[in-house]
Amino acid sequence: APGPAGVPGLGSLLPYRRDPAGFLLRLHRDYGGVARIRMGPMVVHLVTDPEAVRHVLVDNHANYVRGRLYDQFKLVMGRGLLTTDGDYWRGHRRAVQPVFARKALAAIVPNVIEATSQMLDRWETSARAGKPVDLVTEMLELTLVTLSRSLFGYDVSSQASLLKSVVDSSIEIMFPHGYVAEMLPGWLPTARNRRIAANRKVLDRVIDAIRANHARTGDGPLVALMEGARHQDTGVAWSDEEIRDELLTIYLAGHETTATALSWALLSAANHRWAQEEMEAEIEAVLAGRLPGIDDELPYTSAVIDESLRMYPPIWLYPRDVVADDVLGGYGVPGDTSVLLSPLVSQRNPEVWENPEAFDPRRFLPGADRGRPRMSYFPFGGGPRLCLGNLMALAELRLIVAMITQRFRFSLVPGDFVGYGDSLISLRPTTDMWVRLQSRSRA
Ligand code: HEM
């Protein structure tokens, strides 16, 4: 099959760097469901056609591996679930899966309720003083507490700002810029490599503290699983390095993603008063003033979350390397090229989504998805590499959005337009999201 059309030569590099999401949205508009570009030395295909996405993630997933870009990630995260393939990945995934299973979710609820209640009590003070709060900062703080208490059994939030600066710097380093520095071997004492080593040291210390705490107290279901994990074939226990890499991977994969999803969901509600009112009514009808639980069904609130994950998927772009020549959407895609999957571009595809730029939770009310192709919506990926934490993230989102809505009306402080700008890995808002709070108990 012939290759797909796309931007010729190196014409993609600059517009991509300036505005990655905007560039890829236009690429889809101009060239359709499989489009070809060049990123430095690599030929890359943006795959947005739902059938083709399904082919990559599900039907022929073994032909689409982590590859070159993830080598950069390995510098910081090591060999964890995000960066490995094959038997190594499968063994690790099996080992940690039980902590993330549906029936294990109830265990996170008390942590989420407690941490959120504490935040909301603080918000009461801000509301009384007429002081706005920044959703981005608040959600990062909140999800750091819930994630580390629920999984690590140890609250790392005292080191939140250090962690944040190290993670930011690591993301900046790991994201390929096409510089020569990235092609030099890791043992050379370049400025970049020294920075990577320094960041690793900080992250290692945090992981050591988590493990030491577990050794003392036995707390942390995820740590317990890893400390007791054995390789199926040999019966050998996981090495220190394996445990470190996986703990770090789960921290890096689970913290900012959940915070970003919360920020965008709350921003969407703040910008659409009718959605907020509908959630308030539903939450009052279902909960009648009590706190939410894991089994409470809140279809409208869930639809607000789903719709905001459609418009603002925190992991908005990720790559795979093609192993052997394949056909995607009718086009030939050679081995040794790469594909990019973009939940953001796919989920704003006008051929699938009516009026895709409009926020409309009704798309996700029960029964509304009839006829929509399966991989037209995949904020958590799909197939065997489906997000490990997707059920946990959705449960947490629902609990937190419900608790906030129960107690506060919130509206965006007029000012900067909140966009997602030049987001690298997660779809970060370009500005803070200051919201004004109105306590509903006194309204
Ligand atoms: C994988 C999104 C929360 C842990 C993924 C992938 C996506 C994703 C799109 C697939 C990437 C790929 O196929 O290359 C999200 C979003 C989240 C979220 C949008 C929040 C709203 C979490 C949480 C955790 C987590 C809370 C853990 C506590 C992971 C791990 C993987 C993963 C370990 C790799 C799974 C594998 O390859 O086996 N996530 N995630 N994520 N996620 Fe999440």
The biggest beta sheet reads: 5 strands, mixed
Strand arrangement in the largest pleated sheet = 1-2-8-5-3
What binds here, in terms of ligands, is: protoporphyrin IX containing FE
Overall mean pLDDT score? 90
**H/E element order:** HHEEHEHHHEHHHHHHHEEEEHHEE
Number of strands: 10
Rg: 22 Å
Question: How would you describe this protein?
Answer:
There is one protein chain. Helix 6 packs parallel to helix 15 and helix 11 crosses helix 13. The protein is globular. About 50% of the residues lie in helices and about 10% in strands. With about 450 residues, it is an alpha+beta fold. Strand 1 and strand 2 form a beta hairpin. It is built from 15 helices and ten strands. The strands form three sheets. Strands 1-2-8-5-3 form a five-stranded mixed sheet. The mean pLDDT is about 90. The termini are far apart. Protoporphyrin IX containing FE binds next to helix 11 and helix 15.
Q: What is this structure's SSE topology?
A:
Blueprint: H1 13-18, H2 20-31, E1 34-39, E2 42-47, H3 50-59, E3 64-65, H4 68-77, H5 86-100, H6 109-128, E4 133-134, H7 135-152, H8 160-174, H9 191-217, H10 221-228, H11 240-271, H12 273-287, H13 299-311, E5 318-322, E6 326-328, E7 331-333, E8 338-341, H14 343-346, H15 390-407, E9 408-412, E10 434-439
Parallel strand pairs: 2-8
Antiparallel strand pairs: 1-2, 3-5, 4-10, 5-8, 6-7, 9-10
Helix pairs in contact: 4-8, 6-7, 6-15, 7-11, 8-9, 11-12, 11-13, 11-15, 12-13
The structure holds protoporphyrin IX containing FE (HEM).
Protoporphyrin IX containing FE (HEM) is lined by residues 81-82, 93, 249-250, 253-254, 257-258, 261, 313-315, 318, 379-381, 385, 387-389, 392-393.
